């Protein structure tokens, strides 16, 4: 059966390299995940995010200032299961219709304290290019406004190859999907805590 949301995602990513999907997660799922994130954060389960992967990771607060907690699907609690069901449904569709060959994924919760940011970067590692698609899902409060900041800026190119940044606000329920190896992006500081799930669909 044709799913219009997924078809739009596929078309967007092929055309433009990214897709923005509002209501990717329902308000009730966002609230459950937000409460779970905050509970785990208060329980000291998060660690300072590092740059690089397991073999060469370093903490550089001048580059990124968020705290993360990796999510394990095999031990997922109720809210996390809702999240993985949503992702798995999408991945199955992408694999079936586009032969994307995604059979691994990794996701983490992220909390950016007020004023923290993640400087311009690419999500693919120098020593590992298995990350194909990056996905960010925002878990912020319903009253998040543009003046709270915290934009995801993606650096697009216009048809003359001139750089054209696009600001995307982290509204709750919204997901942004983009090609990990292609699109440079950054997270601007917000004037309140900024909550999300970030992850990658991988080919191996
Ligand atoms: O939170 C976002 O909007 C993007 C996060 C990001 O770029 C990353 O974790 O690699
Ligand atoms: Fe990133």
TrEMBL record:
GO BP field: cellular response to hypoxia
Transcription regulation in keyword set: no
Residue ranges of domain Fe2OG dioxygenase in the record: 98-203
GO molecular function, one term: peptidyl-proline dioxygenase activity
Keywords: Dioxygenase, Iron, Metal-binding, Oxidoreductase, Vitamin C
Cofactor: L-ascorbate
Signal sequence interval, chain numbering: none
PANTHER family in UniProt: EGL NINE HOMOLOG-RELATED (PTHR12907), HIF PROLYL HYDROXYLASE, ISOFORM C (PTHR12907:SF26)
Name the UniProt record assigns to this protein: 2OG-Fe(II) oxygenase
């Amino acid at each position: 059966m044709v799913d219009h949301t997924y078809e739009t995602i596929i078309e967007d990513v092929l055309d433009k390299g990214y897709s923005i999907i509002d209501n990717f997660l329902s308000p009730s799922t966002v609230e459950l995940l937000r409460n779970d994130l905050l509970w785990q954060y208060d329980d000291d389960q998060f660690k300072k995010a590092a740059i690089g992967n397991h073999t060469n990771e370093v903490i550089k607060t001048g580059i990124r200032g968020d705290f993360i907690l990796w999510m394990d699907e095999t031990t997922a609690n109720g809210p996390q299961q809702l999240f993985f069901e949503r992702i798995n449904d999408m991945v199955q569709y992408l694999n079936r219709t586009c032969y994307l060959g995604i059979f691994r994924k990794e996701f983490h919760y992220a909390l950016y304290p007020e004023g923290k940011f993640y400087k311009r970067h690419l999500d693919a590692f120098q020593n590992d290019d298995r990350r194909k698609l990056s996905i960010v899902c925002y878990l912020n409060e319903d009253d998040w406004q543009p003046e709270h900041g915290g934009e995801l800026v993606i650096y697009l190119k216009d048809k003359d190859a001139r750089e054209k940044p696009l600001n995307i606000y982290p509204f709750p329920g919204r997901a942004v999907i983009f090609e990990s190896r292609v699109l440079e992006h950054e997270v601007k500081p917000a004037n309140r805590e900024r909550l999300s799930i970030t992850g990658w669909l991988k080919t191996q």
